[in-house]
Sequence to fold (313 residues):
Amino acid sequence: MATYMSLCIAALTPSGIILTADSRQTYRNNAGMTRIGTDTAVKIFQLGKKAGVVIAGRAFFPDSKGVFKNAGWFIEEFRRESVEKLDGVGTKEIAQELSGYLLHHFIEPEEARVKGFIENEVAKEGGTDLVFRPRSRFELSYSFNKQESKVERTFYIETIAFIVAGYDSDGVGRAYYSIVPDLPTEPYSRNTEIGGILRVGQDDVVTRIINGWSSEVVNIPFVQNAQHAGVNVVEELNKASHIISWGVMTLQDAIDFCVLMTRITESVQRFSDGTCMTPGGITGVGGAIDIAKITPEIGFEWIRRKELTVNDD
Fold:
């Protein structure tokens, strides 16, 4: 299974929006080992005159004919099919349309394939009376009988996450995060009036740098005890966060910030094998960093983009 482990960032400033993405693609081989497949994958796509998207997660899945295609192919198909209306709707609506498109072309067919796989696996185990519950987001729960006992299991569909960013008719730039099949929501959004970043992929290093802590802390017993005692743990921990003045940041500053966060993540992954609480890290960030900007005057514009080349030195 190939994945964009990735680190993709959308940085919003008063001057415009910066999108960055690394180029690494990993996969699990037949032995179950994760390997680097390529450092030349594309994860930034233009969607309209003033909108773009970055993607992470599942890298390949089959089309309607059963032919496996790169996830980027589906993004481009979405753009081609929707090109006439993408420039006439808001950023949130584009994100909603993309999530719906991927739900129809990926999640729903994948659910059918997964059910077939589970049916075969249960039969191999000698299980009977297989029952699937309705899919919840990307979780598919099921039960079956085996040796007079009821077995309960859940299969997690490896999905796609994305950030759609662009300028709306009111002149404000906005960005929305979504993990398919979820629709984008306001808590997972940013705008150029306030500024800030959204990131998708392996963002744990960035989170530790900015916030001073990671989501793993909620699994520490004394933190759980504090939560049970009514302490707003997240609010307290966020007091250690760095103060970043997005409201005065220039586009060059935003580029420098995103590139720095990507290269630091790549370097940490080079030397780290996960954390004590979550050992076994994957070096999923690497390769060239593609960069695009979106401004209200010009719209979507590439700053740096990989090109095909020949290196036979």
Observations:
- Helices lie at 71-86, 91-124, 204-211, 221-228, 233-237, 251-271.
